[in-house]
Amino acid sequence: MNSDEKTLVQVRNLSVTYHTRLGPVSAVNDISFDINRSEILGLVGESGCGKSTLGKALMRMIMPPGEISGGSILFNGKDVMQFDQKRLRDFRGRQISMIFQDPMTSLNPVQRVDEHVIEAIQVHEEKPDKEDVISRVKALIERLGIQERRLRDYPHQLSGGMRQRVMIGLGLVLNADLIIADEATTSLDVIVEAMLVDQLREIREEFGVALLMITHNIALVAEIADRIAVMYAGKIVELGDIKEIFDNPLHPYTRGLLRSVPSIRLDDREELFKMSGEPPNLTHPPSGCRFHPRCPEAMPICSRIGPGMDEVSPGRWVHCWLYQDHPQKDRSTIKVNA
Amino acid sequence: MSSSLRNFLITRIFLTIPMIWILITMVFFVMRVLPGDPIRSQLGPKVSEEQANAIRERLGLNRPLYVQYFDFLWKMVTLDFGTALTQGERPIIDELGEKLPATIELTIPAMAFTAIFGIASGAYAAKNRKKPIDYGLRLFSIAVYSIPIFFMGLLFQIIFSVRIPILPLAGRMDTLMMTNFQPITHFYILDSILQGNWSAFWSCISHLILPSLTLGLALTGVFIRLTRVNMIEMLQADFITAGRARGLPEPRLVYKHALRNTFIPILTLIGLQFAILLAGAVLTETTFSWPGMGRYLVDRIELRDYTAVQATIGVFAFFVAIISLAMDFLYAFVDPRIRY
User: Fold this and answer.
1) Distance from CA of A55 to the nearest CA of B (A)
2) What is the CATH T-level fold of the domain A7-95+176-323, as seen in this structure?
3) Is A43 helix (H, G, I), strand (E, B) or coil?
4) Which residues from B are below 8 Å from A154, CB to CB?
5) Residues B222 and B157 occupy one common structural domain
6) ipTM, 2 dp
């Protein structure tokens, strides 16, 4: 994880904690990863594993009772954690943007489409030229496949796919470097979803924007992403090139996840793999590796000490004792403080 | 105007007619069921039965009830309010022409105050949810909601007219000034401006402050609470989060995006509160000796002045119906999703 020209975001030891009545919940636990310029990084995991929280944390959009409880985020080399409110507002929109799951509710119902886009420009640019703004908005919207006359429509007059494209447009209009798509295609039907995915890919080529695709749909990620990060219970358990991970998943959770996806090649008699157990309660996460209660390959050490994130081959990171050494790894009883 | 909007308006207007009819019918019969009649209540028991009967005959009160009722209905249809039965038997239309402007002059500032102050502080409380100002405003809204209007009026009179005599106690205008003031429209503020009579103008304004504040405050509580609750919900809406993620400034999100979306329930409330406003006006006018519709109604109920009471309540009903119609109409302007 060396910082260089192509690294856009550097996340180091990031933790997010929600302070609930039942105690603190560590939704994101000590996560480190990078996002490269104009890459598509897929972030997959079960519901409640903290992937949306991680996305929001990148924008510093964690609201009370949650807080970023540790770690650092470097965006274009700038420390996002040090931004004041004004800087943060400038950062959001200009450098980073987010598309949400429900296109029905993520646009203001009483504001016209063009008003949304123009507002975003006006808020971020000093004294924008009105003619220029309008022509920019028109060009962008048409590029996204929305007719110009639709600009004067209200959100409820657009289809779900169109609204999501408007949201993408809102992310692109200020030339953001990173767009976070949080389950952005989940609520759309398959055809519209496929079109939107194609469009996201094109947009990456054309605008050089990086995309963080947060989804539970691993098939979608397979189709679009360059790299993939698999998240489990607030941890990234495996990170690497999409092909390598699909061909040779290393972490037992990733293996289970890939085997639980229906495949067209699957033999009729063969049943889908179902991982035993449930995702853990993050108020009281399991000791050691958070996956060990469900892990088919758990070893004694797994329940006592959590593994680190280890680079097993260039660009390939795994969070598992199977690929790491520890002086006490092979013992049947482990002293934690050894 | 689309044809569906026209249909909607026509339907609404036709629904208003039976509503007013039922109301004035009820008033007609309730007034006559009540013990006492306009003659006795005015002239007392000393007048002989023959004399009383003569007056009844002159006023048409000796006719069978159904004849009186249909006569009354027909006059209402032709917008003929008739003459009052007591206090000089003046034409009702003249009396209302003096009283209605007084009530409007009182209720418009009250409604404006309650809407502006209520909505603004409700939004502010929602923005600062669970902070001291929020708890303070919630307590305040409960307090003004639960204090009876006349009590609040009396309290204001004691504080601001008696203990700290900065505002007049009662009435619409200084009594001495009244003697050489010639009302034109009976909207005194308007009249004094038309006549360029600035001392009368300021006298009107100072007389208006306490009553309209009393009436306005009494309704503010509901506005604060409704705005606050809806704003809290709106501030958690996805489009606010999305706006924040685009870097829109917080005040813009709260006061432009969220607030505009809470106007639907608020408009509904304005429509509903208007009826309560008129009821409140009755109490406020009585407390502050404000010579408007409310006090007129109370006086004439005591005198059993049938025609005056019927006409006054009919006018009230008409205004409530018009306002609620106007609110329905305004929805479409506030919310593009609503189309008729």
Assistant:
1) 11
2) Rossmann fold (3.40.50)
3) strand
4) 336-337
5) yes
6) 0.83
